[in-house]
Amino acid sequence: MVLQRDFIMRQIQQLVQVLLQVLFNKQQGNHDEARSILDEGLKSTFDADLDDLLSMNRDTFMDLCSPSSAFHAGLAVALADLLREEGTFPALQRARWLYQASISTGAAVSLDTLEWLSGPEGLDHAS
């Protein structure tokens, strides 16, 4: 149990680091580098790049955040934040799934995220 929790916490930490690097590179205008970092981070964390994740059906995709057969909201929110930054329709759709599942478990999300979710499907907002 402790090892599983440590593993999930490392995954969350890894996704947060990837998000920071993606944001930095996008701010610097290095969009190709940001996408490369995103793909590498997702491969390292989930053994799948962005295209792989976006081609998954809902159940398979949601299972990414259930490494111990139990949904882990912290991991889901970290992945959703990354997908939301990506900003494409499929990425935003999956971010919405993750946020909604996290909220349904009682997890806290930012006010910005709640506002985004309450918009028109949260799908026409890239950030």
What do you see in this structure?
The chain has one domain (2-118). It is 72% helix and 0% strand. The chain has helices at residues 2-27, 31-46, 50-55, 58-63, 73-86, 89-104, 111-118.
Features:
single chain, 127 residues, mainly alpha, 7 helices, globular
Number of helices: 7
- Return the structural class: mainly alpha
Radius of gyration: 14 Å
What is the terminal separation in angstroms? 35 Å
- Characterize the main sheet: none
What are the segments in which pLDDT stays under 50 over at least 5 consecutive residues?
none
Residues in helix, %: over 70%
Compute the average pLDDT.
90
The amount of beta strand, in percent, is: under 5%
**H/E series:** HHHHHHH
Assembly status: single chain
Q: Give the count of structural domains.
A: 1
Q: Characterize the overall form.
A: globular
Tally of strands: 0
Summarize the structure.
By secondary structure, the protein is mostly helical. The chain has helices at 2-27, 31-46, 50-55, 58-63, 73-86, 89-104, 111-118.
